[in-house]
Amino acid sequence: MNLTVTDVRLTPILVADPPLLNTQGVHQPYTPRLIVEVVTADGITGVGETYGDTKYLELARPIAARLPGRPVSDLNGLFTVADEVAVDASRVSGRVDVGGLRGVQTADKLRLSVVSGFEVACLDALGQSLGLPVHALLGGKVRDTVEYSAYLFYKWARHPEGVPGEPDDWGAALDPAGVVEQARRFTERYGFTSYKLKGGVFPPQEEIAAVRALAEAFPGRPLRLDPNGAWSVETSLKVAAELGDVLEYLEDPALGTPAMAEVAARTGVPLATNMCVTTFAEIEEAFTRGAVQVVLSDHHYWGGLRNTQHLAAVCRTFGVGVSMHSNTHLGISLAAMTHVASTVPGLHHACDSHYPWQSEDVLTERIAFHGGKVAVSDAPGLGVRLDSDRLAALHRRWLEDDGTYRDRDDTAAMRAADPAWTAPAVPRW
Ligand SMILES: O=C([O-])C(=O)C[C@H](O)[C@@H](O)C(=O)[O-]
Ligand SMILES: [Mg+2]
Prior knowledge:
Strand order of the largest sheet: 7-8-9-10-11-12-13
Organism: Streptomyces fumanus
Distance between the termini: 59 Å
EC number: 4.2.1.40
Structural class: alpha/beta
Radius of gyration: 20 Å
Number of strands: 14
Keywords: Lyase, Magnesium, Metal-binding
Largest sheet: 7 strands, parallel
GO molecular function: glucarate dehydratase activity; metal ion binding
Bound molecules: 2,3-dihydroxy-5-OXO-hexanedioate, magnesium ion
Strand content: 15-25%
Active site: 198, 325
């Protein structure tokens, strides 16, 4: 067996995305992703997926160029390689990163996000070479299925007038009845039994009403509300008081560890985050201040599947829960999330996934949810197969784009409907 990397292919693509609303604006009709293929001397190809915006591509290319000649098993070496590549300072804005709403963008976070795509591809190739599933390379699964939650969004029926995009059959959801209808469809189509509503879009009273309507429609089911830090501490506390009896947790009600710590100190409702604990350096302050009770990991920005396991171990040590955050992603990432989630003991909350919103994929077969769960594959590697025609078609869309969609910008997308729109100041309410 020869595990030496002989070739690395990077394919940026644009995938259709419905008009999902968040506090920054609305999703663009197409969103960039990067598909990574790592080929070994034996002709085995491993696949990975990560963010595809220009700043990630700029880093991925020099890292890819350094991989031929190295063994796919050298996962630790990926971090060393990434550290050798300089990050263009102009790419690190010091502002909240809109492609994931995950706190302030730093050079390290950029590097880790790129490494994650290579790490998953290397694990896939290694697993295929050894005849072992990725979960076995991570120490073995402790469950056979991984539960996901329905990720509900306020949503327009279609993208704004004059903006080309792919139609979807979800319809609009702009009030409590629309949100409940969307949740029903999620349940019918995928069997989800827990629900997360992306908030920070409408004044809190309207979002409280939507969560109340969900609680009435789905009594006893776990519910979450995530305004991505759009509320003040006082507003967060008011929402917590009004919804405390039905919420599994409140996700990033206020922005940043100090504000989250203040909210946490004054409510019994657990707080979750994918914004104030987004990298190892942010753990100490947040945990010692009791700012969060659940960390939503995202293997893309934590630097891969093994770093996700490390994060889970730290959370366990501090008695903090762990689950998973999601951004627009395709089946490769869902497979990767499922493998790592299957290895994490004490995963007590259903993971987030945008996958049901993605009508397009690069796999020969879509990954299925049954009863809100994805079965953990025992096939070698990730257990997925790339559809090269689909990949080529989505890459062609990227090549033909004039640059409008190569970098995710929800605020710019909102301006197509409201020319005066700017990213709202925080706290918004
Ligand atoms: O849980 C979260 O904060 C997210 O999923 C962030 C995402 O960017 C989501 O808000 C989105 O895609 O609009
Ligand atoms: Mg969140």
